[in-house]
Write a structure and sequence with these properties.
- By secondary structure, the protein is an alpha/beta fold.
- The chain has helices spanning 29-33, 92-105, 122-130, 146-153, 168-174, 256-262, 268-282; strands at residues 2-10, 13-18, 21-27, 43-50, 55-61, 67-68, 73-74, 78-84, 108-114, 135-137, 157-161, 199-201, 207-209.
- 22% of the residues lie in helices and 24% in strands.
- The strands form three sheets. Strands 10-9-8-11-13-12 form a six-stranded mixed sheet, sandwiched between helices. The chain has a five-stranded mixed β-barrel with strand order 1-2-3-5-4. Strands 6-7 form a two-stranded antiparallel ribbon.
- A hairpin with a 5-residue loop joins strand 12 and strand 13 (207-209).
- Helix 2 packs across helix 7.
- The radius of gyration is 21 Å and the shape is globular.
- It binds guanosine-5'-diphosphate, magnesium ion and zinc ion.
Length: 289
């Protein structure tokens, strides 16, 4: 048996990248019997049944680190959240929702602050550096920061996310892909698309998911009480008067997190996002989840 990764699935065939190339595979009947559907991104074991064209049988699916619903893909290592310095202006609430859902799914976050040629990235970069995320300052037009970004995603399965127009396609083109720039993708518009998800090989190793702007999980699946876990920089300041402090509706004298915000140790926008998301989650009834 040889190891591989499913890069695409179409009409009952799974395309598995392995040492020998990309093998067109059928899944063994046992998967259907066990109610297991192979997913793009699955690490699998296959046996080769034909060398040319390369064909195989999918024998084993290794345990998933995560599996997303929209798009349906497993084992995503990294989400690159692209924020533009201006046009469009940073949408911190959207970014922080995305980060919280990535943290819950166990997906590593890289922040790219793009369009450094038209405004300074420093303020935005410092918010996320202070929070403990790797931040890359990029200019897709002048090809600045591209190799640093590449280093961060090399050898991994990554997805690019961020509002329409921030420069996702432009950055991906800088990494060697050939995408249309200035187009609002179907995913960006929030419409469902029947297109199949595909892992595109990244020069130098790893894969990029071909659906820029994807939404990850729904933030509503997070419980209000657990939200603070997904704002990773809060933990170090959690010296609050109440053990189960939600850092919400409390004063700095009783809450280490609120105090850290007042002292500028936690980014103001990060805390605003937290309060905003918390107040929404708090009002979602258990049965609505
Ligand atoms: N000035 C400047 N414009 C950029 C940069 N990156 C992308 N753009 C422009 O921003 C617009 C949207 O870029 P695109 O890559 O399509 O964004 P996407 O919607 O996130 O995929 C296009 O007109 C790009 O040429 C950059 O670093 N600087
Ligand atoms: Mg695009
Ligand atoms: Zn607190």
């Amino acid at each position: 048996m040889i190891d591989g990764i499913i890069v695409k699935g179409i009409g009952g065939f799974y395309y598995v990248a392995c040492d020998k190339g990309v093998a067109e595979c059928r899944a063994r009947g046992k998967f259907r019997k066990e109610g297991i559907t192979p997913m793009v991104g699955d690490r699998v074991g296959i046996t080769i049944v034909n060398e040319s064209p390369l064909q195989g049988a999918l024998e084993e699916i290794f345990p998933r680190t995560n599996s997303l619903i929209r798009p349906p893909v497993a084992n995503v290592d990294t989400v690159v959240i692209v924020i533009a310095t201006v046009s469009p202006a940073p949408d911190y609430l959207m970014v922080d929702k995305l980060i919280a859902t990535a943290e819950k799914a166990g997906i590593e976050v890289v922040v790219a602050v793009n369009k450094t040629d038209i405004a300074s990235p420093d303020e935005t970069a410092s918010i996320y550096e202070k929070a403990g995320f790797p931040v890359v300052k990029t200019c897709a037009v002048q090809k600045i920061g591209i190799s640093e970004l590449k280093q961060k995603i090399c050898g991994k399965v990554s997805a690019f996310a961020g509002n329409s127009g921030v420069g996702k396609s432009s950055l991906l083109n800088g990494l060697g892909f050939n995408l249309e720039v200035g187009q609002v993708s179907k995913i960006d518009r929030g419409k469902h698309t029947t297109r199949h998800v595909e892992l595109l090989p990244l020069e130098g190793g790893g894969y990029v998911i071909d659906t820029p702007g994807f939404s990850l999980l729904d933030v509503n699946h997070i419980k209000a009480e657990e939200l603070k876990k997904y704002f990773r920089e809060f933990a170090q300041y959690e010296v609050c008067s109440f053990a189960d402090c939600a850092h919400y509706g409390v004063k700095a004298k009783n809450c280490g997190v609120v105090a850290a915000v007042e002292q500028g140790k936690i980014g103001k926008t990060r805390f605003e996002s937290y309060v905003n998301i918390y107040s929404i989650l708090k009002n979602i009834k258990e049965w609505e989840k």
